[in-house]
Specification:
heterodimer; A: alpha/beta; two-stranded antiparallel sheet; 11 strands; B: about 350 residues; alpha/beta; 12 helices
């Protein structure tokens, strides 16, 4: 009964620390215009708009999609605003896909964004909340203990994080939209950078970016007009509490369950063999091997071996974040959708200089909060 | 399309100030447990969860993160959240059921308006570059809308007072209403203005509260409820954000949502109208006949828990079906300044 759905086009802004050349509306417009052009559709072809972003405090506007309704072409149409923490960009894609899968709409525009320079994300995350553990150290301080725990549990050599960081910044140099591009980055240079939250060094952390990403999702009928759309084979979301007795924060059950449901829906029994490219939410370098295991690409404790062997480079067995990933561009609310869009671009053969050869199936992954929110999709060049 | 119905509804008492925290958990636990108990199911029977809330109302980032604890999501759940009234979360849940991935969904919304200064908080929904810096608050904008309608002969202060009297008298039979009972129209019209032409009785009170709804499809719904409220149409739309460019005496998005949802021959309409003139506006805009019973719960004018208030309208309308009091009903939810965004859900008994 589920209608087929496909990504018809994607669009991204240039990511920078401060996009002071555009308003919030202008930023969204930049991504949407590119997505509509890529999908060969106009504003009138869009039936509904789904907007995603992380907390409203990041810009200092309450429910900004209300005041942006005109700029994003939503007037007279249904407009939904999704907010599921850092996974929101992915969740927004999933909700937009659902509207087509359900047969409610023919073409849906999904756009996710963050303009961090309008406010101060660190402040927004540090508002004291009664009965809650403060996150005063920011995300890096929150996740560093999980990384240390991963290294202890897996016995991974300590340079694996630097391998990821150097690879992603080099990949970013091939991506015209990326925020941080370091074509000559090396493991040694990463290891020589300032230690911030042991074992996470400065070059192993994501930037703060302004940016937006949009995708047009259409029905099987709408996809006929598109040369090589990215068919959506599976979508999946899972949530667990921030804390509970026995919670594994290094390899969270919500992520494992989400991936298991995803592979099952996509008919994939061996992800490492069947997935040709992956865009995984890696805001701190070590999350690449951690999520490789959580997603089921490798057995627990062995994700770092794939990274260390260079198999996650473009040209390796499973290229991860050929776009440069979150480590190179991080407009928080958009970061998940960028993963989803880049996975689609790989399948559509539209990734330009960072195109991985022969991608038939790709996965987009996002997580948020304290690793308790997950959203994922599998896209493929063939109809599901 | 699958047949999807509202099979359960629960809400907290609507109060001026709850002792519960802004994260909603203390308000949500009793009503989530209550609705599951009434349906004789457990959380493991729910296929999809979706909530509506606001970080700005809670005065914190990620207001929904702690609220999720109220669902006891171990093992992990299939879950999503909208930064909007939970009526839009219900729409997302309805879509999810339509994909065929799940057969049941639980939707909740919560808001503790007493934690801040609601009038000023809502001003932050306006265009941040040119309008919000002037701080036109929510009463000021509603007042402009009401005044325009009066000047155009669309409604009058007396007609608005009549809406208030009916709403607050209807609320006398609603055990969850924050305000119930009313003086007569003449006495209300002698009261001072709050934001001319709005008087206190023209405005929804400031309310803390939460609500929960359970949706189920096909056979599942029939097993869970002796009289499910089958959703025959649900739709929403949004109007321009530019207050000065809109005709504030109309609501094209509400009319469009109603057309798409198909509101013909409804007997009851639960309208989400935080201001009296907005009921008069919607009555005309939706073309509701005089025989349609309007908002028998008392509506937002008797209690308006932000980000749950729209979902409460759906629940109250569904209750008309559960009870056999009506055969076909509609619920309406609104968001944004001056009825900018509107949702309509039509339900019937079979």
């Amino acid at each position: 009964m589920k209608e087929r759905a496909a990504v018809l086009g994607t669009g991204q802004t240039h990511y920078r620390a401060k996009r002071q050349d555009v308003s919030m509306a202008g930023l969204l417009h930049e991504a949407i215009d590119r997505a509509l052009a890529d999908a060969h559709v106009g504003w009138d072809d869009i039936d509904a708009v789904v907007v995603g972003k992380a907390p409203d405090f990041f810009e200092g506007v309450m429910m900004p999609e209300l005041s942006l309704a005109d700029a994003i072409g939503a007037v007279g149409k249904p407009l939904l605003r999704v907010h599921t923490a850092g996974s929101v960009g992915g969740s927004t894609g999933v909700v937009a896909a659902s509207l087509v899968h359900a047969g409610v709409h023919e073409r849906v525009l999904a756009v996710a964004w963050e303009k961090q320079s309008e406010s101060n994300a660190m402040w927004a995350l540090s508002i004291p909340i009664p009965f809650n553990m403060p996150v005063n150290a920011g995300a890096g301080g929150y996740f560093a203990p999980h990384v240390r725990s991963y290294i202890r549990r897996s016995g991974a050599p300590t340079h694996v994080g630097a391998i990821v960081a150097a690879k992603d910044r080099r990949n970013a140099a091939k991506n015209p939209f990326a925020h941080l591009k370091q074509p000559d980055q090396t493991v040694e240079k990463v290891q020589a950078s300032q230690m911030l939250w042991d074992p996470i060094r400065y070059d192993e952390t994501c930037p703060s970016s302004d940016g937006a990403c949009a995708v047009v999702i259409g029905s099987e009928n709408a996809a006929r007009a598109v040369d090589r759309p990215a068919w959506i084979h599976a979508t999946s979301m899972r949530t667990e509490p921030t804390t509970y007795a026995g919670r594994d924060q290094v390899n969270p059950r919500a992520g494992r369950d989400c991936a298991a449901a995803l592979w099952k829906q996509a008919g994939i029994t061996n992800p490492l063999e069947e997935i040709d490219a992956a865009e995984i939410y890696v805001p701190f370098s070590w999350f690449e091997p951690m999520w490789l295991e959580n997603l089921g690409f490798t057995p627990e404790g062995e994700g770092w071996k794939l990274t260390e062997a260079g198999e996650t480079e473009i040209g390796g067995k499973l290229p991860i974040n050929a776009s440069g990933g979150v480590l190179s561009s991080n407009p928080i609310g958009a970061s998940g959708m960028i993963r989803f869009a880049e996975a689609a671009m790989q399948v559509m053969g539209r990734a330009g200089e960072h195109q991985v050869e022969g991608v038939r199936k790709a996965v987009g992954h996002a997580y948020g909060g304290g690793s308790q929110f997950f959203s994922m999709w599998v896209v493929g060049s063939e109809k599901p | 399309m699958r047949d999807v119905a509202v099979v359960g509804f629960a809400q907290t008492p609507q109060v001026r100030e709850t002792r519960a925290t802004t994260n909603g958990v203390e308000m949500l636990v009793p009503i989530i447990n209550g609705v599951l108990r009434d349906l004789d199911i457990t959380k493991h029977d729910i296929g999809f969860w979706c909530s509506g809330s606001s970080d700005y109302l809670a005065g914190r980032a990620f207001s929904f993160v702690s609220a999720i604890d109220a669902t006891g999501p171990v093992p992990p759940i299939n879950e999503s959240h909208v930064e909007a009234d939970a009526a839009w979360a219900m729409y997302e849940a309805w879509v999810k059921i339509q994909t065929g991935d799940v057969d049941t969904a639980l939707v909740y919304g919560f808001g503790k308006s007493s934690a801040g200064d609601l009038r000023r908080t809502l001003a932050l929904q306006l265009d941040p570059y040119v309008l919000a810096p002037l701080w036109p608050d929510s009463l000021a904008i509603a007042g402009l809308q009401a005044q325009l309608g009066i000047e155009q002969g669309r409604w009058s202060e007396a007609a608005m007072a009549e809406v208030a009297v009916r709403a607050r008298r209807d609320a006398e039979t609603n055990p969850n209403a924050q305000l119930a009972g009313s003086k007569d129209v003449d006495a209300l019209l002698a009261e001072p203005y709050l934001a001319q032409p709005l008087r206190r009785h023209d405005c929804a009170p400031i309310t803390d509260g939460a609500a929960v709804i359970v949706l189920a499809a096909d056979e599942r719904a029939r097993r869970l409820s002796p009289r499910p409220a089958w959703i025959t149409g649900i739709a929403h739309a949004i109007d321009s954000a530019h207050i000065g460019a809109r005709d504030l005496t109309t609501s094209p998005s509400a009319a469009k949502a109603a057309r798409t949802a198909g509101i013909d021959s409804v007997e009851v309409a639960e309208l989400h109208t935080p201001f009296t003139h907005q009921e008069l506006l919607l009555h005309a805009e939706l073309g509701l006949g005089d025989d349609v019973r309007l908002t028998p719960s008392g509506g937002a004018l008797a209690g308006n828990p932000m980000f749950a208030g729209g979902l409460v309208r759906v629940g109250e309308a569904a209750r008309q079906i559960f009870d056999g009091a009506a055969g076909r009903v509609m619920a309406h939810a609104t968001a944004g300044p001056a009825l900018q965004q509107n949702l309509v859900c039509v339900m019937e008994g079979r």
